[in-house]
Amino acid sequence: MRDFETHFPYKRVLVLGLAKSGFAAASTLLAHGRSVRVSDLNASNQDELVTILEQKGAEVKLGAQEIDLLDGMDVLIKNPGIRYENLIVQTAMERNIPVLTEVELAGLLHKGTLVGITGSNGKTTTTTLAYEMLKESQVRTYVAGNIGTAASEVADKTTEDDRLVLELSSFQLQGIDQFRPHIAVMLNIFEAHLDYHHSLENYEQAKANIFRNQDAGDYLVYNAEDERLQHIVKDAKATLVPFSGSRQLANGAWYDETHVYFKDEAVAAIEDILLVGGHQLENILAAVAAAKLAGATNDGIQHVLKTFSGVEHRLQYIKHLNGRAFYNDSKATNILATSKALSSFEQPTILLAGGLDRGNTFETLVPFMEHVKALVVFGETAEKLRETAYLAGIELIEYVNDVKEAAEAAYRLSESGDVILLSPACASWDQYRTFEERGNMFVEAVHTLE
């Protein structure tokens, strides 16, 4: 635990971007006696959040963002989605004004045990599992960050006995200074968000920030089978806690044909695990390690693994209809996520994919398309995915306008015994505001089928 007043010496703060994290940061800082200026390009004076912040004493500036926003400011807290090429951000850095993200505040405000979880894939599932395992163990635990609630909003309410489990994106981690989780988790590193970070090295460095401030009294849980992570964690000062699905580990989490283990202790039976997909065992191992280090009991862990069927939009089972099983994996915004989803099924599969074109191709999906009998494509990458289907020997391909039409087309092309899987392998922003919006449209469409 750190004293916020000592470690956050800035008195005048510019909050750039009035989204969920911006509102939480501004509100929290106002409550701690800071002078806060908020700027947002798209909000209006009629927005409830604007009214609330003004009533609390914030100076709110809407519309075009001019350099004079920085006048008199000691620090800039930016929305994670705002790029560092932004003129205000660039100018702040040139003026040696620190540029942070809202999770920095959470790290300074939280009074108990902080668990931070990051990775290219599996963050939400692992975060949810660890949170539920601690909660079922009667440990008072909160969950926040990239998963839903803004981190600082929750952290400011915690006590020394509480646990706070945070899902952390590379966007959030790039903007930290003193942030230090007692337990950090790195699931995997896969080439992602290069349009934001510009290079794999920059992306890796942002992810590695999760353990940058740790020492030997802290823990770093990591995937011992991920070659990139093995290289990255060599710089860590924390106590390393590996997990592996391939070998027994005396100092970490692993599994065999019968049980999940933490070190030499059998924690849960494999046959009791409800989650679909072999790749989910990696997420389970990471969650078990983090939860055990944070005080979870085996009974609490076992209860969660027996009852947890997945998070919304992450290989989420929807329903069976006339012998077809429908799954919503809208959160699969990159190739690795979709490859893991495809690896979860041995049944004939109709894959629904497409979305924002970030310049990559999809050839690396081909080895995972053995059971794909048909492909329904949409969005900017539809043509690239069609070319990938040809490489995989898939001849049944259909173009549609959106995921509603995709659900209808997939059902028409399917037979009893098939899996119908929305796993786009792309971000949603060419057609939808969020992957949640995309997934919800798909789920609604499935429930209208007869």
TrEMBL record:
Subcellular location: Cytoplasm
Gene label: murD
Summary of the function given for this chain in its UniProt record: Cell wall formation. Catalyzes the addition of glutamate to the nucleotide precursor UDP-N-acetylmuramoyl-L-alanine (UMA).
GO molecular function: ATP binding; UDP-N-acetylmuramoylalanine-D-glutamate ligase activity
GO biological process: cell division; cell wall organization; peptidoglycan biosynthetic process; regulation of cell shape
Domain Mur ligase C-terminal: 313-426
The protein's name in its UniProt record: UDP-N-acetylmuramoylalanine--D-glutamate ligase
Reaction equations catalysed: UDP-N-acetyl-alpha-D-muramoyl-L-alanine + D-glutamate + ATP = UDP-N-acetyl-alpha-D-muramoyl-L-alanyl-D-glutamate + ADP + phosphate + H(+)
Alphabetized UniProt keyword annotations: ATP-binding, Cell cycle, Cell division, Cell shape, Cell wall biogenesis/degradation, Cytoplasm, Ligase, Nucleotide-binding, Peptidoglycan synthesis
GO cellular component, one term: cytoplasm
